[in-house]
Fold this protein.
Amino acid sequence: MAAPRAVAGVESGAGETQLILTDSGSEEGKRPQFGTRFLTDPRQVFQHNAWDNVEWTEEQENAAKKKVLENSQPLPPEKQDEFDAKANEFWNEFYTIHENRFFKDRHWLFTEFPELVEALTLNECNTHFPGENASYRILEVGCGVGNTVFPILKTNNDPGLFVYCCDFSSTAVELVKTNPEYDPGRCFAFVQDLSDVEADYPIPDGSLDVLVLIFVLSALHPNKMQASISRLARLLKPGGMMLLRDYGRYDMAQLRFKKGRCLSENFYVRGDGTRVYFFTQDELHELFTSAGLEKVQNLVDRRLQVNRGKQLTMYRVWIQCKYRKSLQQTTETPS
Ligand SMILES: C[S@@+](CC[C@H](N)C(=O)[O-])C[C@H]1O[C@@H](n2cnc3c(N)ncnc32)[C@H](O)[C@@H]1O
C-alpha cells in the first residue's frame, strides 16, 4: 500500500499540550474500529477524515528521525529533577484548569479491549478490601477524570464487576469521586503514584483480572517504567491481563516538539510541565516480559488523520499491547 507523499502537517495555532492531549482523547474517540479504512489510492487521501494502518515510506521514516535528532539536546539535570519531583503538581494544575472538559470518553475501548466487558475466567482470592466480593476486578492506573472508567461501568453490566481507578493527581481523583456517575458500590477511586513501587495498594496482590494503562506509562520517567510495570504485574491474578495504549515513536506529537523540550532520548516536557515518552513496540515488549508477563498482542496503530478543510495530513502513531500473567505463576514476579 502506498502512503501519500505529504509530510506530517499540523493545524496552526494548536498549542503543544492541546495537540498532544486532545489527540490522545477526542480524535481517537471518533474512531469506530481499528483497521477498517485503508488508503489504497493516495489521490483519495482527502476523501475521509482518517485512514487506518498507513505504511510509512523509508523517506518519511528518515525525515522523522532527522526531526527528532534536531531536538535531542537534553535539558540540564537540575531541570529534569525538578520536573520529576513536581510531576503530580503539574498534573494537578492541568486538572485544576481543564477539570473534566479536556479528554473525551474512550469509546474505542471495547473494540480494542473486549476484556473490559467479557470476563476472563480466573481464580479468586480472599482477603478484606473494597470490592472483595466482586468476581471481576479491573484497575485503571493514571485514570485522570474517568474517561475510561465511566464508559467501562456503563458498558459492562456484570453484577460481579468492580472497577478501581487511581491517579497521582489528587485533583483528578476528586473529580472522579464527585462525578454523578461515581457509584461506590461498583467503583473505588484513590490517589496513588504508580512509580512509587514501595507504596501499598488498597487491593492485595493477585486480585485483579485486568489492569488498564491508557496514555499513562508515557508520563513516567523512563528509569521508573520497569519497576512500575513489575509492581503492577504483582496485582494481577494468574491469567490476568495488562492492557496498554500509548504514544509510538515518531508520532506527530513527537515531531512537533521544539528545541529545549527534550529531557532524554524520546522523552519531552510539554509547555505545562507534564512529560511524555514515545515508545517502540520492542521497548514495551521488554518492559512487560521482564515483569514476567506473556505477549498476547503488541501492535502499532499508524493512523493518518486528515484535515480536509485545510488539506493537511497528520501521521499518528499509537502502540497497543495486551500482556498476560501466566496461569502457572504465583503472585510474585521479578522486580
Ligand atoms: C494523558 S492523561 C490520561 C488519562 C486517562 N488515562 C485517560 O485515558 O483519559 C495521563 C494521566 O496519568 C496520570 N499520571 C502521570 N504520572 C502518574 C504516576 N506516576 N502515577 C499515577 N498517575 C500518573 C496523570 O495525572 C494523568 O491523569
The first strand starts at residue 50 and ends at 51. The two ends are 42 Å apart (CA to CA).
